Amino acid sequence: MNYKIGIDIGGTFNDFVIFEQKKNIFKVLKTSTTPDNYWHGINLGIEEQKISLNKAEIIAHGTTIGLNTLLQGTGSKVGLITTEGFRDAYEIGRGARPDAYNLFYKASKPLVPRQYRLGVLERINVQGKVIHSLSKKDVEKAVNYFLKNNISNIAICFLHSYINPNHEIEAEKIINKINSNIKVSLSSNLIREFREYERTSTTCINAYIQETITNYINEFILGFKNKGYRKTFFINQSAGGLLSAKTAKLKPVTSLMSGPAGGVVSTSFVGKIENIKNLIAFDMGGTSTDVCVILENKPKLTADSILEGYPVMVPTLDVHSIGAGGGSIANIDDVGSLQVGPKSAGASPGPAAYGHGGKDATVTDANCVLGRVSPSEFMPSGLNLNKNFALKAINKNVAYRLKINHLKAASGIIEICNLKMANAVRSITIERGLDPADFTLCAYGGAGPMHACWIAKQLGIPRVLIPIAPGQFSALGILLSQIRHDLVRTISSNLSYEKIENIFKQMFREAKRLVIAEGVKIKKISFDYSVDARYRGQEFTINVSLKNPKFNKLNIKYFLKQFHQIYEKTYSHSASNEKVEIRNLRLVAIGHLNHIKIPKINKGIKKPESIAKIYKTSIYFENKFLKCDIWNREKLLSGNEIKGPAMIVDYGSTTIIPSKCLCKVSDYGQLIIKISN
Predict the structure, then answer these.
(1) Which of 218, 503, 541, 548 keeps 20 to 30 A from 28, CA to CA?
(2) Domain range spanning residue 272?
(3) Are residues 120 and 186 in the same domain?
């Protein structure tokens, strides 16, 4: 029996998806996250399912440990070596005020203080020509200063090294001769793209989190090895593709958003098999909610995201996150208003209903009081929600203080949480010129299916899709992901098409080498080409896909037509008579190592079989309790229809269908809910 295993560590739970290749079946599992020792929670899951890892073909993992390290400020002490005269570019940044009308705005504190940012004599011009050789003496002096100050993580970012990286490579060699234990992050190994401040920020983040990520990955490698796993351990990237653990340790900045990226990948996958092209990925977990737009089955990517004020210049799925989840804490602020989040009860102690000592009222507690949670047999191992604990927390922290009853208090918590999440979806649709009515909301995560129909109703979204294994959907996406390497090259805007073709050839050879080094055969590698282009005189670019890297007359005509169309769609105007210039070349190399086919479920009729009904319950909807049926999702068949109000439960997730909404079960087991106006 051969397994493929996807693992996602969240703020509250660890999610597992185990795929048995011969039987073509999935198993899913949840265990509590163990922040003091992440491996412990994973090990519990492996032992609970009695998984023989010596029979595992692939283990792929998504983690937010790097992101947590950045947000919590617990990374390593870092030294920065840059071109002489440019050490303050990192702190000055763009000189812009992101929040212009916020009188209390404070810029994020640089990860590298000024005393640990040192300039060295060297200079390469914008064409890549050496103006001044690298001063070996300056590099040695900088390294010795860092060592004296107990710094063993160094970031190197030289001016125009995206064109010519030789000085950065030379500096690394000098450092290794002095002390081979120093971890060095080169900007040219991470991003070969112009914009000095963003490159420097990205390189510093890489150095800042590298030691933490390396120790974390090494612990998992050792743990899996002791369990019998001898093959490559993979880490998911923010762009929605896998890297070997060896590569991920060198480029940890590429996996900051690796957990949320898994859910976006699986949303795109489910959209394809259900023939739904435009979706909004909606992942509501224990501590946060992540949303992302998928157009024409392609998730939106960005190469200029900002995390806690720090620019990150690596390809990342354009996921928008807010602090609203099942564990979000409800409290009364100083002026007597009810607030929900962003602070979370996390995995420990968790919501009051968990019975693990939590005293704060959370979103989960509110759902519990309103009767919207699954029966205990569908909960993760060792978890049984206690309604009395939830009620006590709601009363003490909210109801008594607002002088209202517990049902109004719980409803208020849910309403505020739903509003925050609806605003998150609004920010990636309406605020970007997209109509939510053109999309299907794909809701997953432990809490997503519980809230999805209300979010859809608020935004005029006509349809909600609850995928298979919604509680472990991000882990499924990690398992569905392939090896991915992203390459970028900034070029001079006046380069000929012939020279652009030659650079693409160089990138092709490098990409092929990188993917083969991950253990993929050449015949299983595909390549996607694109360019970042703009009208001459503009500052920013838009990305345009290419049929292939050859710039003959036909392809040039196709590229220009695509550019004008995308520009028109983005900005509602275009200028077809203006000259278009190419600024960046991009190549994505995909190593196809993981082919998984989702099986169809058995067919049924409109009316579900009686065996699928568990029992009746009362759920609080719009100021009153309504009697409704609880259905076991595992027993539902393709073609079954369920009218709201109803509850559909499966392991680790609960779907609530409000009144007048209709749920149909698809051939592949997805729940597709038509939202009533």
Answers:
(1) 218
(2) 258-324+420-468
(3) yes
Position 376 scores a pLDDT of 62
Contact 133, 154 (CB under 8 A): no
Whether residues 206 and 263 fall in one domain: no
The closest of 242, 246, 258 to 63, measured between CA atoms, is 258
Contact 57, 231 (CB under 8 A): yes
The Cα–Cα gap between 330 and 420 comes to 13
Residue 641: what are its φ and ψ, rounded to 5°? -125, 140
Helix (H) or strand (E) holding 615: strand 613-621
Q: Are residues 361 and 427 in the same domain?
A: no
Residue 1 has pLDDT above 60, yes or no: no
Same domain, 543 and 644: no
**How many angstroms separate the CA atoms of 442 and 290, rounded?**
12
CATH number at residue 35: 3.30.420.40
Tens digit of each residue's pLDDT (9 = 90 or more) over 405-415: 999 999 999 99
CA–CA separation, 18 and 553 (whole Å): 49
Cis link prior to 260 (omega < 30° from 0)? Answer: no
Q: How confident is the model at residue 234 (pLDDT cuts 50, 70, 90)?
A: very high
**Res. 96: pLDDT tops 90:** no
- Report, as an integer, the average pLDDT of 201-219: 96
Query: Helical H runs in 593-659?
Result: none
Residue 516 and residue 524: Cα distance in Å, rounded?
A: 10
Claim to verify: residue 553 and residue 615 sit in the same structural domain: no
- 451, 573: one domain: no
What residue has token string 């029992």? Answer: 615
* pTM score over 0.70: yes
**The token pair that represents 231 in the structure block:** 């093959």
Helix residue spans in 179-251 (DSSP H):
187-190, 196-226, 245-250
> What are the residues facing 295 on neighbouring strands?
298
Which string of DSSP letters, residue by residue, matches 270-315? Answer: HHHHTT---EEEEEE-SS-EEEEEEETTEE-EES-EEETTEEE-S-
DSSP 352: G
Determine the number of helices (DSSP H) and then strands (DSSP E) in the chain.
17, 36
Residue 529's CB is within 10 A of a number of other CB atoms, namely 18
For the chain, how far is it from start to end, CA to CA, in angstroms?
A: 49
Same domain, 190 and 107: yes
**For helices 448-459 and 406-428, what crossing angle results, to 10°?**
70
DSSP E strand boundaries for 482-579: 483-490, 525-535, 542-546
Cα gap 191→583, rounded to integer Å? 14
**Residue-level pLDDT at 379:** 66
How many angstroms separate the CA atoms of 262 and 240, rounded? 6
Write the pLDDT tens digit of every residue in 170-202.
999 999 999 999 999 999 999 999 999 999 999
189 domain residue, yes or no: yes
